[in-house]
Amino acid sequence: MEQKKESRWQQVMEQFNEPDKWEKKTPEEQARERLKFEITEELGLLDKVEALGWKGLTARETGRIGGLMNQKKKEKRNGE
Fold first, then answer.
1. Which of 37, 60, 74, 80 could be disulfide-bonded to 9 (CB atoms 3.0-4.6 Å)?
2. What is the rounded CA–CA span in Å between residue 47 and residue 41?
3. Is residue 1 part of a domain?
4. In this structure, is residue 3 part of a structural domain?
5. For residue 79, how far is the Cα from the chain centroid?
């Protein structure tokens, strides 16, 4: 069987999340964290986050990530 290749955002997310802290998060928090990294990659900001951390983003960039997260959560709720 072929092993599924991890996405770039998954690799960066693993760098940011320590395993012991990750396990303490609820499934909802883990899903939110995955969505945040996925959107960050879609916006082309993943390299910046990897290099500078979340504090390296501007308010506009973080607002865009948050807005897209809310939009995707709303779409998921309406789709079910």
1. 37
2. 8
3. no
4. no
5. 21
